[in-house]
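Figure 2 data, in text form.
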Amino acid sequence: MDDWKQITARRLSMCEVCSKEIEKGQPLVWSRVKSAVRCIGCQNISIEKKPVKRINRIVGDAGASAKRQYKTRSAKDSSKVEFLHPRLAKLLRVDNVDSQTTKNWAKGAVGEEKVGNFLSKFIKKNGGILLNDRQVPGTKKNLDHILITENAVFVIDAKNWSGTISVKSVARNSEVVEILYLNSYNQTKTVEKMKDQVEVVKQALKAGGFKVEAIGYLIFYGVDWPKKGIPTQVDGVLINGKNSSGVILGIKSEKKVDVAAIGTYLEKYFPPR
């Protein structure tokens, strides 16, 4: 709606069209809706808005540290078999001599890579900055992915699991709590670890003077979901369900995030793993 109104300048102002200075006491036109002023000569000029350039940046290789860990462990497993059973080692392929722990590292690397591919496609379509495989300073811990959008900072942990994911409400100590399950196995520790990761990022943002929400997001790859009551969150941590993009897009904020500034800051704060 056109609400331009002619008034007298109460202070030194500048026309949004021609940048002419309008001194105090001089006439100008003012729009409450647009929160803008113009000189009398520019009041009927239309301004073509320039499209805002969307930030789209991917930093780091998803699953890189997990791949390195797998190769190191696999080499050790092979060497151990060759030393203890030299004849048998010649008959076995490398993947057959890997311990279960080593195989879990390989599976985890695949999950991080798959989730990283999805997140890359997401920001190419919706904008944002994606930081993959980041080191938590002063520890051996890492963050799989940090996604910065115009609405929030998402701390994402990728899980390449097999089985059915569900969330159940359970009575505990006179209160009802939500519990994450993989099949019949309680996965409370997974949720707690995710919350710890979020706290690390929250403290980093606070140290940088950024007032922005950090949200934990567990993205499961290769799992099954219940036919009814597909979970989207547990104890404040988001879960991808069957709509990974929808979960991210469902988070809205009144004040838009400075994606570029926060992305640059977090990239330095959490170096590559």
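Caption note: The chain has two domains: 5-42, 56-61+113-269.
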